[in-house]
Structures are given as C-alpha cells and as structure tokens.
Design a protein that fits this description.
This protein is α/β, with parallel strands linked by helices. It has 16 helices and 27 strands. The strands form 8 sheets. Strands 2-1-10-9-11-12-13 form a 7-stranded mixed β-sheet, sandwiched between helices. Helix 3 packs across helix 4. The protein is globular, with a radius of gyration of 23 Å.
C-alpha cells in the first residue's frame, strides 16, 4: 500500500485538488497499521469501480442494490446506468479527470448512479443538500471551482439561480429519480451504450469534496481520497458486521452528509446489501410503516428520530430490524434506554465528522453502553488531552484527539491548523474516557449548534440576519430543547424604525429561510437593546447562553 504524500503520480489532469491540499506539515498523521485490510489496498484504486464493478464481478451482479417505490435496481443495472452517465460526462460534457462535479438531489437511485459515474470517470464528487439555496451554492461552486453539475429536476429553480452568478459553471444536466424521464441527463444516457473504461485513479487522488459549516460561518471544504472511501467501509461496518448481503437499509441523512453517504450507499454496496429510498422525508409513523412493509433490517438516523420511534414500537411489526446506528449528535442515555426497552435493539452510537469522513468512535451492538459513545473503532486510536495536548487521566474531561487511516484535509483553508495539531485530529468535542477506553460526551468545544442531527454554524445564521435592513446587530446560540436537543436562538438589536414584536420576528425568520437552508433559521428570536461584549468589543456568547 502506497502511503505517498501529495506530489506522486496522479490520474488527475485537472490538478486543482492536489494543488490546494494543506502543506505537508499541516496534515495529520495517517495510520494504516490498525487493520490488515488497510495495508492491502493497491497503489491505484477507483472507489466507484471497487464498490460497484467489483461487486458485479464477484457474484453480486443480480442482487438488488437500490429500491425506490416500485423500482428496484440490481448491481448490474446500476453499473450499466453509471457507465452511461460517465460516458455523457466525458464524451458530451468534456469532463477530464480531476474536474469537480456538483451533485444536487434528494436521496434516490439516480443520485447514487451519478456519484458512482463521477468517480469512475475520474471526477470529484461535490454532493450538496437539497435544501441549500443559491446563496450557499454560489460559495460552494466558487470555492471548489466547479464547472459541471448534475441536478434532480425538482431542484432546478435554485440551480438556475446559481448558474446566473457562476458563469464558469456549465449548464446543468437534469435527471429524474429513476432516470427514465424526459429531461436532459435522462435523454442523454438513453442514447449511450453500456460499458465504460474506468479512470485509473491513484489511491490518493481526491474522490470527493464535502462541505461542512465551521464556527466562523463560512463552510469548510474537506477533501477525501479514493482510499479514504474504502477505509470508511472497512473500519466501522466490517469490524462490527454492520452490513451483510441480506440487509436492506434505510435512513434519514442525505448523501451529502458523509454519515448518509457511508451508511446508505458505501457500506451496503461494499458488502452486497441494498438500500431503500423514499420520495419524501419520512415522519416517524411513516418510518415504522416502511420498516414493517419492506422488512428493513438496518436504520441510520439521528437521536431525535429514535426518541419518537420508541413511542411507536408497539404499534408496528418491526421484527426485521436488527441494526440501528445513530450519529449527527450525541445519543442521550434516556433515548438509548427507551428504544432498547421498546424494541430490544441496542442502538449503535457513532462519533464521526465530515473531516474524518465517517465514524471513528463507536462499539458493536453487544458492547454498547448507554450514555457512552463507545471506544476508538478498529483502525483508529483516540485520547483525551488538555489544551497543551497532554493526555489526561481517566474520567477527566478534555479535548478529543484522533488518528487513523483518514483525517482532515481542508481545501485551501487556514483553519486546518485549528483541526490538526501535532499530527492529531481535533474534532472539537469535549469528552472523558473511562478506564475501559469508553468515551463519554461532555460538550462541543466551539459554537456549533447541533439541532435534530444537523450541524448549524451560529455565525452563518448571524450573517444571514445581518443582511436584513432591520437588523443592526445579532448573535446566535443554541438553546436546549427536549425534542431537537437544541434550537437556534437569535438575540437581535434592531435598527431605528423597526418594532420589536412578533411580526418583525416572523419577517426575520422567513427571510433567513429564504437565504440559507430552512432548517438553520432561528426558531426563537429575542430582541435586545445591546449585546454583551468585552472591553475590546468581542461578543460574550457565554452570557447569552446563560439566558437560554
């Protein structure tokens, strides 16, 4: 296995990603010795081909891989469609290896086909959440210098608005959920024959760029190699037998979240399993009905959903369900116990991050402990340290530090130094570890607000509010909430001439919903005369949190 550093032989003709990697001294230490399979990866690997073509070759071709309403695709069918999409990208759109491709869609079969096609063609996937507005997409397109886009036709409005402000972006190709409609990409692939000569990518060529919001408000772009995608499939699910050929998975996280990408696409495909997607987001009652009807065996969702599912367990036959994984926010002990008591299923809690691509602290179902996230999973190591990086004794709260086969690589971002220190990744969580190596969550170490499984950067919401003519100053914090863990609360200083009333609050809330993803809007607004600050003018958010 080549562990070469950037600068070696690459398949990328467009070297934008490699050119914008952090300097060598700013990278974390990558460890491939934790598991034998990590050391077995060849120097050249294409994750799209490995997860799809290789499964067809090794006997899974006729097995189902994706379900959507009445449609089911086998691995062979997904391969054929992905190959035709790859041909469209290369032959018709002029994609060259290393080009970034924006993917816009809800979870559906064509999104998976497009994702595989981009990798097989040597492109770099930049998958975005369907809720993002043009304002947010513009930043992503410009930051990653994206020239190609594949978009679900239902999201065309915001996509077109984005194109108006990003002239370097080619006209997007549009698709329907199962690729059999009459829109541009559907028609283009219908004219192509099957078969595609996959790009011979290096194991450490960039395969995807995933955006995450940081505490400064401007999203950070994290770069992951082809081998990183394979490593996430071979550490967590393989170590704990969390995906087997007979499994049928479903869940709520979008594939734009690496939590969803792993749990609902890469993990099942690595082991010959299948995933069922749905046209619309599932309410708790719908989720239980789907598990019963389709004999779902595996579920990936956030603690807020598990809380609600526990109350419904007696009303549905969910005897098929065996594997439940929670991530996105800490899993409260009470939620774990309520779901276990109602179903007999131990939820597997997982701590991961976009920077690390997926879960690095967890445990097998039989080893989960209520109130604990778990231990460093095979392939990774973790410790709790003080502000100086010195390891702390058991049961002492401190900063979590992690090393393994994956790690943080921000695209051209000075904040790399905040996440990586002395070769260790610092996800920004305060944990404590007991004598058995089990990690217990204490708090976030930054201003990220985790609400219903979504990471929301307070400064991003503040920036949107400040663009409204009524707002003079504002500050956003998380307010504890029983249903959502936290909600976004905004403290707003109004300009002269605007009334501090319910109507103004509603106007500001609607404004934010239209400027950034709606789930980020402040569910509570408190109008204040001034914001607490230090003598140097620095905002004292802790004083605002005390008021919540």
């Amino acid at each position: 296995m080549s562990k070469r550093l950037p600068g070696g032989h690459t398949a990328h003709v467009d070297t934008f990603a490699a050119d914008n990697l952090p300097p060598l001294e700013a990278l974390p230490k990558f460890d491939f010795d934790g598991l034998p399979i990590l050391r077995s990866y060849p120097d050249r690997i294409n994750a799209g081909a490995e997860l799809l073509d290789q499964m067809c070759v090794t006997g899974f071709g006729d097995n189902p891989v994706l379900h959507y309403e009445e449609t089911t695709w086998t691995y062979n069918e997904l391969r054929a469609i992905s190959d035709r999409i790859a041909k469209v990208l290369v032959e018709d759109q002029g994609l060259i290896p290393g080009n970034r491709v924006l993917l816009r869609s809800a979870n559906n079969p064509m999104l998976v086909a497009c994702w595989c096609a981009v990798l097989k063609a040597g492109g770099i996937c930049v998958t975005t959440m369907q809720l993002l507005r043009a304002r947010e997409l513009n930043y992503i397109v410009k930051k990653a210098e994206i020239k190609h886009a594949l978009c679900d036709i239902t999201l065309a409005d915001e996509m077109q608005k984005t194109c108006q402000h990003t002239p370097d972006l080619r006209d997007p190709l549009y698709f329907t959920a199962t690729g059999d409609g009459e829109v541009s990409l559907d028609c283009a692939i219908a004219s192509k024959t099957g078969g595609f000569d996959n790009c011979d990518t290096a194991a450490d060529d960039t395969a995807l760029i995933a955006f995450t919001s940081g505490t400064t408000g401007s999203p950070k772009a994290t770069m992951h190699f082809h081998r990183d995608i394979m490593a996430m499939t071979d550490c967590f699910p393989r170590s704990f037998a969390m995906a087997e050929p007979h499994d049928i998975f479903t869940g709520t996280p979008p594939l734009a979240f690496t939590f969803g990408l792993g749990g609902l696409t890469c993990f099942p495909m690595r082991f010959g399993a299948s995933t069922r997607f749905f046209p619309d987001p599932l309410r708790p009652e719908d989720m239980m009905a789907a598990i019963e009807r389709y004999k779902i065996t595996g579920l990936y969702t956030a603690p807020t959903m598990y809380r609600q599912l526990a109350d419904l367990a007696n009303d549905y036959d969910i005897s098929s369900l065996k594997k439940c994984v929670s991530a996105g926010e800490t899993l409260p002990k009470a939620t774990w116990e309520a779901f276990f008591n109602a179903t007999g299923i131990p939820i597997v809690d997982g701590l991961g991050s976009t920077e690390m691509i997926h879960i690095f602290v967890s445990a097998s179902p039989s080893e989960m402990r209520a109130g604990f996230t778990g231990r460093a999973i095979p392939g990774y190591r973790a410790k709790v340290v003080d502000e100086e990086g010195k390891e702390l004794p058991p049961n002492t709260p401190g900063l979590l530090a992690v090393q393994g086969p994956t790690g943080c690589r921000y695209l051209a971002d000075d904040r790399q130094a905040q996440y990586v220190k002395d070769g260790w990744n610092y996800p920004g969580d305060v944990y404590q570890m007991d004598e058995d190596g089990y990690f217990k969550y204490i708090a976030r170490a930054d201003d990220m607000i985790i609400s219903a499984g979504y990471n929301i950067a307070g400064p991003e919401v503040e920036n949107a509010l400040l663009d409204h003519e009524a707002v003079s100053e504002c500050a956003v914090v998380g307010k504890p909430d029983k249903k959502r863990t936290n909600i976004v609360k905004a403290f707003v200083v109004l300009r002269m001439g605007f009334d501090a009333d319910v109507e103004t609050a509603k106007i500001l809330q609607d404004y934010v919903k239209n400027e950034i993803a709606p789930y980020k809007y402040p569910r509570e607004i408190e109008f204040v005369g001034e914001l607490p600050k230090t003598e140097t003018g620095k905002l004292q958010r802790f004083r605002l949190r005390d008021k919540t």
